[in-house]
Amino acid sequence: MNTEKAANEPGTALTFDALEERIRVAYCNDNRPWVIGYSGGKDSTCALQMIWRALQALPKSEREKPIYVLSSDTLVETPVIVDYIDSALTRINDAAEAQGMPISAHKVVPDVNDSFWVNLIGRGYPAPSRRFRWCTERLKIDPANAFIKSRVAEFGEVVMVLGVRSAESATRAQVMALHKLEGSLFSRHSSLLGAYVFTPIEALSVDDVWDYILQTPSPWGADNRQLLKMYRNAQAGECPLVVDKNTESCGNSRFGCWVCTVVTKDKAMEAMVDNGEEWLEPLLDVRDFLAETLDPERKKVVRDFRRRTGKITLNRSGDGLIPGPYKREFRQEVLKRLLEAQREAAGLVTDEPAPTLIHEAEIHEIQRIWRRELGDWGNSAYQIVKDVLGKELHADDADDFEFSSADGDILRQVCQKHDLPIQMMGELLDAERSVQGMRRRTSIHTRIASILEKEWRSEDEVLADLAVELAEEGAAIEASNL
């Protein structure tokens, strides 16, 4: 009789012992390694703890298949949660080695080029909203999937173990049922080839989860009462490891990115502040400052009328133009406020490490983008760091052809004299600088053409010309109907 099917028969008792037995059957069913999504919250803790205890009952010869515990750090996670998870991952690795368990914990982070602040401050991406949630894929899905794909390349197939529960939402239950393989404990992954999904605690209620992790000792020596206290202080749920677009991202009062503007209010952060974590208040102020830019009237003030491509798009369902990225001045203001929040939070922290809200590598990448896209030859990002933190930063890859602040002043004077857009001339000069010393310069023609094709008129000029065009279109339509 197929043991996997027997363990998955409807009506199987869902006691904790039965669930652990089901896990053993699933683990021993094949040679595919497991990747357990671990967010540090109650559900993923319950799943990992149950798997660990289930495997402890197996002879050592039967638990050699590797299990990877995967945690994703977006680099804008609530600092309290980051510290908790980092400590947990260290404990997991130490305990696994001491107990001879085939378990290893890993943390993935987004590439610096994809980080939240590089996109928002560097490229000017607007604060995420429900209509434009550009962050999830870059910060969560891509880093986790890169790790999973590397295991697929190594082993052929893997099993993703997720601590998700069907009782958490009707949408989640529907998605989980959609990909289920008939007569199997596993589901097909919705997008990753070679990856399957196992959800050992899908039938548990939230009370079941707390009963399990509070009544059974943590195999890696964690104090789950501390986790319970964090939930009470934040009045929150957890953000699951997101590995595809079907997985619900964070919202409402969940633990997650402290800078999230998808929700109207960050109830978890507010609750933490109310329960004694006053040092988080400067972070909450930055988050609220960004959330204000989602207001339609505020958008007109802080965002450019051009898209990142340099083109314009008419908002035919409303008035004016569809706004593009944040303006240069506003990006500088965000960086200044972020660094001030980091400095202020560090001064308020008592028993926690001082938080790092933005990393030096991100600042270097932001400055590189500003030089290339905004003609910021004066390295204003580095100047902001110096003004706020008193710290000197310099580009690591500066060369003899880098333009200086003095060069920028000369360019500004020339452009004013000849009535030329300074940003256009800056981009043209930077394009020429970038091919200095190359034997083949064919790419420069394409780059010059793309720069010249951008919209360099002022917003008032653009709107005036559009008004004329629309009036002419209307007159032509009216004439054709006569």
Could you characterize what this model shows?
This protein is mainly α and 482 residues long. It has 2 domains: 3-121 and 130-256, 3-Layer(aba) Sandwich (Rossmann fold); 284-458, no CATH class. The chain contains 19 helices and 6 strands. The protein has helices spanning 3-7, 16-28, 42-56, 79-99, 116-122, 135-155, 170-178, 206-215, 224-234, 267-274, 281-291, 296-302, 328-348, 360-374, 380-389, 405-418, 422-434, 443-452, 459-480, and strands at 34-37, 67-72, 103-108, 158-161, 187-188, 195-198. Strands 3-2-1-4-6-5 form a 6-stranded mixed sheet, sandwiched between helices. The longest helix is centred in the C-terminal third of the chain and has 22 residues, at 459-480. The protein is elongated.
Termini Cα gap? 81 Å
Regarding CATH, which class of the largest domain?
A: Alpha Beta
From the alpha-carbon coordinates, what is the Rg to the nearest angstrom? Answer: 27 Å
Helical percent range? 40-55%
Structural class: mainly alpha
Number of domains: 2
Number of strands: 6
| Number of alpha- plus pi-helical segments | 19
Name the shape in a single word.
elongated
Mean pLDDT rating: 84
What's the CATH topology name of the largest domain? Rossmann fold
CATH architecture of the largest domain: 3-Layer(aba) Sandwich
Poorly predicted runs are 1-13, 171-176, 240-244, 246-253
Main pleated sheet: 6 strands, mixed
CATH superfamily of the largest domain: HUPs
Element order: H for helix, E for strand: HHEHEHEHHEHEEHHHHHHHHHHHH
Question: Largest sheet, order of strands side by side?
Answer: 3-2-1-4-6-5
